[in-house]
Amino acid sequence: MKKIGFLSFGHWSPSPQSQTRSASDALLQSIDLAVAAEELGADGAYFRVHHFARQLGSPFPLLAAVGARTSRIEIGTAVIDMRYENPLYMAEDAGAADLIAGGRLQLGISRGSPEQVIDGWRYFGRTPQDGQSDADMARHYAEVFLDVLKGQGFAQPSPRPMFPNPPGLLRLEPHSEGLRDRIWWGAATNATAQWAAKLGMNLQSSTLKFDEGGKPFHIQQAEQIRAYREAWKKASHERAPRVSVSRSIFALVNDLDRAYFGGDESQDHFGYIEADTRAVFGRSYAAEPDVLIEELKQDEAIAEADTLLLTVPNQLGVAYNAHVIEAILTHLAPALGWR
């Protein structure tokens, strides 16, 4: 059994071929797709965060709006780039959004990916300390974020406060109990997956990871998941961890599906996302349902994960993306034992 959700990058473009032509379209359609996905029986609505791009950039207003319009579906990110964040202000935003959603937030955070601008986090006032890399800075901000989510007091109250204070040191408000256990780390390497396990974060592994041996993507990803689970076990956390993987999967069940994706001949690709970092990019899946079922049975990383996030082509509109999700839930999930 697996939880199945969608992952939207929230692209928008003024192109006549796009059904998502503005930032307003991207946000409102994201809410509508989450509502539709819940009605179809999907388990999660997740959103990618990119800055300086025509994509979803400020997640918490969107997460809160989705939370107010839905009642059951998990609502998350995959991922928030921590290089840009003020972790204390982020904890306040996250606490508020989680309370609006009734405790359904599943926040994916990470060091981030290649950007639209050079060192974009500097424009947000973020500067690594001496001897730190931007990745070090992101992990430090993540640790601060996790710490304040515990809800423990740390700030000295004023002797002359505007409003009466509870006794002792003050914590950030609003605090949402349990959110600390619903933070995920988007790991591109085995080492950062193990680091996330030690800190008690769930694991998100996307359609890309750094190449650590030249094996096919799904095998490397499965190895990463197993290394994460072993590190979690050694850390002796009280709860069980969760692991998600992302995939582009399209069941070709009508002529429109075949027109959009019928010509795809996808396979893994190896390349460089940064000057000195070789990565492996996972394949997409697009075929008739019976073919897809056999192909997906061979994906070791999907088998290892408890949560599958389906990347959706959001610019094709809410109705078509709801159809994509429904096709997976109807034609594939039961046959694969996911439902």
From TrEMBL:
Luciferase-like domain residues: 9-254
InterPro entries in the cross-refs: Bact_Lucif_Oxidored, Luciferase-like_dom, Luciferase-like_sf
PANTHER family, per database record: BLL6902 PROTEIN (PTHR30137:SF15), LUCIFERASE-LIKE MONOOXYGENASE (PTHR30137)
Protein name per UniProt: LLM class flavin-dependent oxidoreductase
Organism: Aquamicrobium soli
Upper taxonomic lineage: Bacteria, Pseudomonadati, Pseudomonadota, Alphaproteobacteria, Hyphomicrobiales
